[in-house]
Amino acid sequence: MHTATDDGATATDAVATFCAATKAADFDALMDTLAPDATLTSPLSGRLVFRGKDDLRILLTAAYGGLSHLRWTEQIGDGTRRVLLAEAAIGPFRLTEALVLELADDGRIRKLNPHLRPWLTLTALAVWLAPGLLRHPGVMRRAMRAP
Fold first, then answer.
1. Which of 18, 77, 78, 93 minimizes the number of CB atoms within 10 Å of its CB?
2. DSSP label at 140?
């Protein structure tokens, strides 16, 4: 999504930057694409909701930092809702992702709702993420509380 500014310049496309940042493991650039109140609903539980840039940095660094051969294959949508399709691997397991994004008024990403498959890879991802997230128990406690 490109939005025009008052001087006619094109604002940064947060979705394209997000894709490039995840592929390059550039987590500072990734965080710049997120709105301050961004949330991510866990594809592992469906109930855990990670909120805010601090918690999302820990989660997204662990998640995207553990993937190899990440390739964003398609972007669907052009309004405030986008769907990104990706392929990657975690260890020997192949992963496909459909990531539903909701954009804020300023074009940054407000909500991330990842859908991952297959089940075996999702299980491997959970095992991979657990040690990194357990080092930050506050992140998990905050994700478990109701909004």
1. 78
2. H
